[in-house]
Design brief:
This protein has about 100 residues and is α+β, with helices and mostly antiparallel strands. It has one domain: tt1808, chain A (Alpha-Beta Complex). It contains 3 helices and 6 strands. Strands 1-2-3-4 form a 4-stranded mixed beta sheet, with no helix packed on it. Strands 5-6 form a two-stranded antiparallel sheet. The protein is globular, with a radius of gyration of 14 Å.
């Protein structure tokens, strides 16, 4: 099997910015495929139309979904040990 130079084979986290045209696919079929990756622990979807971030975390054989929507809240990417305020993620964005 040929390796693509821009692909990662065992990601622990995937972070995506949603677009209108792919949001349903990203939340549905694509997430289904990502769940098959044993290494994946977090799948984070950042909405570009409004201040909203969906965090999907693997909990054993199940996935827990949480959502943050307030600019004062923080996104914690556990596997990376990173925390960032939504206000910083959406800085200079007008809705």
């Amino acid at each position: 099997m040929e390796k693509k130079p821009n692909s990662i084979t065992n990601p622990k986290v995937i972070i995506e910015v949603l677009s209108k045209s792919t949001a349903n696919y990203d939340r549905g079929d694509k997430f289904y495929l990502y769940r098959q990756l044993e290494s994946l622990e977090e799948y984070i979807l950042i909405d570009q139309e409004k201040a909203q971030i969906d965090i999907n975390k693997r909990q054993g054989n199940f996935w827990e979904l949480s959502r943050i929507t307030q600019l004062e809240e923080q996104l914690e990417v556990v596997v990376l040990g990173v925390t960032i305020k939504l206000a910083e993620i959406y800085r200079d964005i007008e809705f």
